[in-house]
Amino acid sequence: LKYGMVFLIMLAVFYFWELLPEMLQTKLPEPPMKFRNKKDKTMSIPEEDDILSSSGLPSRLTDSHSSPESLEKINQQLSQLTLEQVLKWAHTAFHSGRREQLVHVTSFGPSGMVILHQLDALGLTPSVPIISIDTLHLFPETYDFIKSLKQTPRDADSYRFETPLQIQTYSPKAHSKTRSEFDSAYGENLYKTDYERYSYLTKVEPTVRALEQQHARAWITGRRRSQGGERANLQILEIDEMADTSTITSGKNKVVRYKLNPLALWTYDQVWDYIRKHHVPYNPLHDKGYKSVGDTMTTIAVEKTADERSGRFVGMDKTECGMHSIQAKALAAQKAAQVKSESVKTTGSSSSQDGLKKKKKHDGPEPLPCTGCLELDPTTLMDLIDSGTTDVLMEFHSPFCGHCRNFAPTYEKVAQALLDHASIDVARYDITYQKIPKKAEELGIKVTSTPTLFFVQRLPEFSVEKFKGTRTAEGIVDWIKSKTDYL
């Protein structure tokens, strides 16, 4: 019996000894979510990390990812992620270990506040600089709201940011520190007489300076497709195409700067549902009918059913695209097409190369449709002016211009309304890659923005007149009727 007991004990010890290594490698089960540390907002949740690691997204973003093919793939992957996951990925992808970093440029509108709330919840606000652009012409309520975000709320029911916000404000660099000084230096109506210059002084230059000083490899914006216009085709990740901010100096080299639009696919209602659900603070002007808030002199309250940005740029014709903006986009599209062409050539696929020959020379938007319109080039434009026998309504446009895309259905209605009249033709001229002939400019066809309409009339004498009214189909046709006797 004794020998039997000793044998059993030795057998048990031997069995335990064999299992010991495997037991030491066994992990304890993950605690239920409710028992995890809620105070540590930076604590990664394994399930979400698995999603990010399995998404195929690059852990670091470099110039090699700036090709159209790479961006398209990355955007497809980002579109499957939540806002939280997009921001977590971006925080890693754009912090290179040098000075380059990710920054959040915001006017503290609804979209910006949603992003700011999520950055705070992730514990990222200390490492993602928050940039505010002060045009010196903001509403008093906006200044008060920004000031309140920097303070700890006294009301216990108010939302408290986990980390005190360090907002860095940039304003016009010139010799003006207040609105009155700015208006004295440049005139209080500069925004009306020369909006491009006003925009550069109050918005573009301060933004450029901020991005440079913060060594921003990428900047977060609150832009969304649902805001319409040029934002209708917005991607979550894009190359910064603005000439002044498109690159960042890294060591001795210039590298690409990116824009991140994490709410690109969100709707207006989704933004406000998030704000209400999480009790995110917002500008009190939104409760007074201001769906979008900008400068005092160009922003008004609108009806609840109005488009989100319909109350912006009031008192000025901000329904056009500047030529410099179109040229910058066209140049970027040509470069993208060149990269794609070189990529196809390296594959050695004859079928791919044959397909490329059939494609357009740029990688931009498709041409805008217009049934009943004559499509002009420099030669046919001058032939129509010099040798034509009919009056001509001409639109100068570019598919790169969001306002042109919005106006396209209206112009097509005009073409249809005038289609049966033999005395007038309706034509279009794409200025993206075609310069306007010098002789046409001498006759008065000078284009500084798009869309722009000109009416070339033969009788009682040859004349060229620019349309300056409201661009509705009825308004344009009525304008033509007032000039002629055959409609």
Q: How do the helices and strands line up, and which of them pair or pack?
A:
Blueprint: H1 2-25, H2 46-54, H3 68-78, H4 83-93, E1 101-105, H5 110-121, E2 130-133, H6 140-149, E3 167-170, H7 179-186, H8 190-193, H9 195-213, E4 216-220, E5 237-239, E6 247-250, E7 253-256, E8 258-260, H10 268-278, E9 321-322, H11 323-347, H12 350-357, E10 374-376, H13 378-387, E11 391-397, H14 402-418, E12 424-430, H15 438-442, E13 449-450, E14 452-457, E15 463-466, H16 473-483
Parallel strand pairs: 1-2, 1-4, 2-3, 4-8, 10-12, 11-12
Antiparallel strand pairs: 5-8, 6-7, 9-13, 11-14, 14-15
What's the short version?
With 487 residues, this protein is α/β, with parallel strands linked by helices. Helix content is 40%, strand content 13%.
Q: Could you characterize what this model shows?
A:
This protein is an alpha/beta fold and 487 residues long. Helix content is 40%, strand content 13%. The strands form four sheets. It has a six-stranded mixed β-sheet with strand order 3-2-1-4-8-5. A five-stranded mixed β-sheet has the order 10-12-11-14-15, sandwiched between helices. Strands 6-7 form a two-stranded antiparallel ribbon. It is elongated. It starts with a helix and ends with a helix.
